[in-house]
């Protein structure tokens, strides 16, 4: 399979799940996978092996985008705006 075929297949799966296929790419799904595992306390070394990285440098600098801190920050902002 080439990259275009993978993107097309992922788009079909995402749409079958009731989401917009153009909103999710394999790269975004991979980053979400890494972020969710990291946020759940899975050691970065284990995550790195799961996504076939040779070391954790890439994981720490590029792939691991923490979702939970962003969500918490958003919730706090909404509480400030609308009151708790």
Automatic annotation (TrEMBL):
Keywords for the protein's UniProt record, in alphabetical order: DNA recombination
One Pfam family linked to the record: Phage_integrase
Domain of life: Bacteria
Residues of the Tyr recombinase domain: 1-56
Name of the featured protein: Tyrosine-type recombinase/integrase
């Amino acid at each position: 399979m080439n990259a275009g075929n993978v993107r097309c297949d992922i788009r079909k799966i995402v749409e079958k799940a009731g989401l917009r296929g153009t909103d999710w790419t394999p790269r975004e799904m991979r980053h979400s996978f890494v972020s969710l595992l990291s946020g759940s306390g899975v050691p970065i070394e284990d995550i790195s092996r799961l996504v076939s990285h040779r070391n954790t440098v890439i994981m720490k600098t590029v792939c691991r985008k923490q979702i939970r801190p962003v969500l918490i920050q958003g919730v706090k902002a909404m509480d400030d705006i609308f009151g708790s």
